[in-house]
Amino acid sequence: MENEETMNGVAKGVGFALFTPKIISSIIACLIGFFLVSCNSISLIRSITYVETTATIVDITYNSDTNIYTPIYEFDYNGQKVRAKGLPFTYADESVIGQKQVISYNPKDYNKFDIGSTKDSIILFCFGSFLFVGSGIFLYKFFKEVKNM
């Protein structure tokens, strides 16, 4: 009787040791999926209301107080060419002037825009959802099995 209990304990320990890498990878995948879903949710919501267009980088401004460079984008807004400041960065590459980039702007305020295609946001959101849900299901089933042992 005692040997049978010992064997069951050893078997459970070996089984748990075999699943430990899967558990850790599932937890990491679940966290990465949650991060991708949460980060891309805002972009996904914006992609529904924002308008996608192509903008040209026409200038880069420099603020000597903060040592920050800001690209200036030019694009069509309601039939007029407008300029809007992009996200600041800490280095300058003059070769980007004249390059075209896909942006999505707020039709109510052209100064609010996201750089990149809305398709990228949707793909990352779907991939993150797949990781989050898939690893969550694996963890749920695994812990359900552990509870039944």
Helices and strands: which structural class?
Answer: alpha+beta
Shape: elongated
Could you report the average pLDDT, rounded to the nearest whole number?
77
How many distinct beta strands?
Answer: 5
Describe it.
The protein is α+β, with helices and mostly antiparallel strands. Helices cover 53% and strands 29% of the residues. A 5-stranded antiparallel sheet has the order 3-2-1-4-5. Helix 1 packs antiparallel against helix 2. The longest helix is centred in the first third of the chain and has 48 residues, at 2-49. The two termini are 18 Å apart.
Task: Write a short abstract of this structure.
By secondary structure, this protein is of the alpha+beta class. The chain is built from two helices and five strands; from the N terminus they run H-E-E-E-E-E-H.
